[in-house]
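Thread: quick sanity check before group meeting

JM: Hey all, I'm pulling together slides for Thursday and realized we never actually wrote out the predicted structure for the chain we discussed last week. Dropping the sequence here so it's in one place. If anyone has concerns about the input, flag it before I start.
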Amino acid sequence: MKFRRLIIATHRDVGYFFAGLTVMYAISGVAVNHIDDWNPNYVIRREMVDVGVLPTGAASETAAEILRRMGITEEPRSVARLGPDQLKIFFEQRTLTVALPAGSVIDEHARRRFALFEVNYLHLNHGKGLWTWFADAYAVGLLILACTVIFIITGRKGLGGRGRWRLIAGVASPVVYLVLTVWL
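JM (edit): ok, ran it. Output follows.
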């Protein structure tokens, strides 16, 4: 009876400690899983602008003329000619893609998504350092939760009954997926 009480207390206390982080990782996980469908970190607004025919010349001179015509005073981070007919001008949260010499500009503004940017930053461990250790502790905490939940319920609803079949199904699901998609 004491072992079961220890299992329940451990599961409860670890669960409470990591509950908020679990919600955060779940939201971020869904967002990142669909990265091919949308950008979970930034809202990107695109606008087409025509600045007129541009003179040929050095990339920096052409970029300066484009910025003058568009009324942009911000200093670009860099300018790159991607080919004879395309120029890119990079700012902190903005990119201009220019078709040369026609002067058609795709003006892209990027803005961080509220809360999702930060949650994804943590989930994908971009911070490194101390956060890596905390994320490792969280992974161990999830392992403890997974192991202790197996022993919380006893009898026909627990591991000796229908719980066994749910545990097997949970383990089998990723294995079946891997067999069907990777190993065949």
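AS: nice. The longest strand covers residues 42-50. The chain has a mean pLDDT of 95.
JM: adding both to the slides.
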